Amino acid sequence: MNELFVKKEEHMTYILALDQGTSSSRSIVFNQLGQIVAIAQQEITQIYPNPGWVEHDPMQIWQTQLATAKEVLAKAGISARDVGALGITNQRETSVVWNKNTGQPIYNAIVWQDRRAEPACVALREQGLSDTIQAKTGLLVDAYFSGTKLQWILDHVPQARAQAERGELLFGTVDSWLMWQLSGGAVHATDVSNASRTMLFNIHTNQWDAELLAALRIPEAMMPTVQASSAQYGEVRAELLGHAIPIGGVAGDQQSALFGQACFSAGMVKNTYGTGCFMLMHTGADGMRSQNGLITTSAAQATAQPQFAIEGSVFVGGAVVQWLRDGLGAIRHSSEVQALAESVPDSGGVMVVPAFTGLGAPYWHADARGSITGLTRGSTVAHIARAALESIAFQSAALLQAMSRDLTLAGVAQVRELRVDGGACVNDLLMQFQADLLGIDVVRPEVVETTALGAAYLAGLATGVYSSTDELSELWRVERRFSPQRTPDYATDLMAQWEHAVRKTVL
C-alpha cells in the first residue's frame, strides 16, 4: 500500500474518519497534516437473497463500524479525548429503514448495486417523470438510487407503509444510520451529497422535493434533516468511545474522495477504483447537465454555498478481480492479478465486459450481461485476467470521453490530468494502461485513502482544525505520475474494440 503511516505526535490534533464501504467498515485516524496514523478494518457480509438483489445487515454495519473505531484508537495509541473531530463517509445509495422508537431496522439495508426496484423505475418512466426527476435531482431514473429502494421496503415489508404514515419509521443512507446510532438517537441527519443520491432531493433548492416524495408515496417525516457536508451535526455519545467527539463532516464516498483529492475548483477530476469505479468532475457552483449519459450531483459542501459535480458510475470495477478469484478460480488472492496479467504482453484480442449487474454510465443498460469476446485457441486464463483488469480502465475511459464531450458542448477547457484513488489504483499496470487510453497524466497521491481523508478534512474544517480549502490544497502530495506512453491511434483503436464488445452485451 502507498499510504503514508506516521508516528503519533504529542500535542497534535487527530481526526477520526469512519469509512463505511460496500465490502468493509473501516476507521482511520489522521493527524492534522492529513497523514494516516492507523487503520482498522472489518469485512461485512454480502447477502444475495435473489439474483440481482444485494443486502447488508444494518446492525452488522453499525457493530463493525463501532468495533473498528475502538480498534483504531488503540492502534494509534490515543484516546477519544485526543480526537478533535469525527467525519463519516459511506456507500451512498444503500438504504436503511428503522423504527425510531426501538432503533431496530425493519429490513436489511438494500445496497446500491441492488436492481430489484427496476419495475418501479419503469413505472416512473411510463408516468413521464424522467425529465422532471433529472431536472430536479440531476439523476437519471434508475434502480441504483435510493428512492425506489425505500419505496420497495414500504411496499413489501408487512405493516411498513402504515408505520411510516404514523411517523414511526425513519429512513437514511448509511451515514444517517451511523449518526443515529453514534448519537443515541439524537441526530437524524444527512448531508447534501448523500441526499442528492436519493432521487428525492432537489439539488437546486437543497430540499426534499414534495412532488417526488408524493410520486413515490414516501412520507416526508421519514426523511433526515439535510446539512452542508462540513457542519456541526452533533456528538458521539461519550460512553461509546470513552469521550464525546463532535461529528463535523459527512459526505458520500465519491464526493468525499473528490474533496480528499483537493479537487475544489471547476474542471478538476478524480476517479476512484473501488468495488465500482466512480469518476467525478467538479463543476463549481454550476449544476451542468450532461448530454452524454452522466449525472449531475451535489459535491461536498464546505459551506452553505451549493457545489456541483458531474459523475459517471461503473458498477463493476475492482469487483472484476473478485470474480477472477471467486468465480473463475484464476487466482487465489487478489494481489496475484497483476503478475498473472503481466505474464502476457497484451490481452491477445480478448475483451471482458463485466456487465454482471447491467452497465452504468455512460451506457445505462440495466439488462446488459457480462461477456468475453475475442477468444481464440491460443487464449489463456492470463489473457482473460489481463482483459478483466483492462476492463476497469476501458469503462473509466468511456466516462472521461463522455465528460470531454460535455465540456466541448459547454465550451470549457478539457481535462488535463486524472487524480486517482481507491484500492485498485495501487496497480501500476492498470494505471499506466489508463494513462495510455486517456492520453493524459494519471496522478496517484501519497495518501490513496482519499475517501476517508475527505471526511476528515470536512470534519476538521467544521471544528477549526483547518482554516480553509486553500490550506487543504497545500497538504495534497503526488506519489507517482503516469504519463501516456502510446500514440493516440493506439488508444482510438482499442476504444473502438471496447465499444464493439459493449454493443455485443446489449443486443
What is the element layout, followed by pairings?
Blueprint: E1 14-20, E2 24-31, E3 36-43, E4 55-56, H1 58-76, E5 83-90, E6 95-99, E7 109-110, H2 118-126, H3 130-137, H4 146-156, H5 160-165, E8 169-173, H6 174-182, E9 189-191, H7 192-195, E10 201-202, E11 207-208, H8 210-215, E12 225-227, E13 230-236, H9 238-241, E14 245-252, H10 253-260, E15 269-273, E16 277-284, E17 295-298, E18 308-314, H11 319-327, H12 337-342, E19 351-353, E20 371-373, H13 381-410, E21 417-421, H14 428-438, E22 441-445, H15 450-462, H16 469-475, E23 478-482, H17 488-505
Parallel strand pairs: 1-5, 5-14, 9-12, 15-21, 21-22
Antiparallel strand pairs: 1-2, 2-3, 4-7, 6-8, 10-11, 13-14, 15-16, 16-18, 17-18, 19-20, 22-23
Helix pairs in contact: 1-6, 10-15, 13-14
Fold and architecture overview:
The chain is of the alpha+beta class and 507 residues long. The chain is built from 17 helices and 23 strands. The chain has helices at residues 58-76, 118-126, 130-137, 146-156, 160-165, 174-182, 192-195, 210-215, 238-241, 253-260, 319-327, 337-342, 381-410, 428-438, 450-462, 469-475, 488-505; strands at residues 14-20, 24-31, 36-43, 55-56, 83-90, 95-99, 109-110, 169-173, 189-191, 201-202, 207-208, 225-227, 230-236, 245-252, 269-273, 277-284, 295-298, 308-314, 351-353, 371-373, 417-421, 441-445, 478-482. A 7-stranded mixed β-sheet has the order 17-18-16-15-21-22-23, sandwiched between helices. Strands 3-2-1-5-14-13 form a 6-stranded mixed β-sheet. Strands 4-7 form a two-stranded antiparallel sheet. Helix 10 (253-260) crosses helix 15. The longest helix has 30 residues, at 381-410.
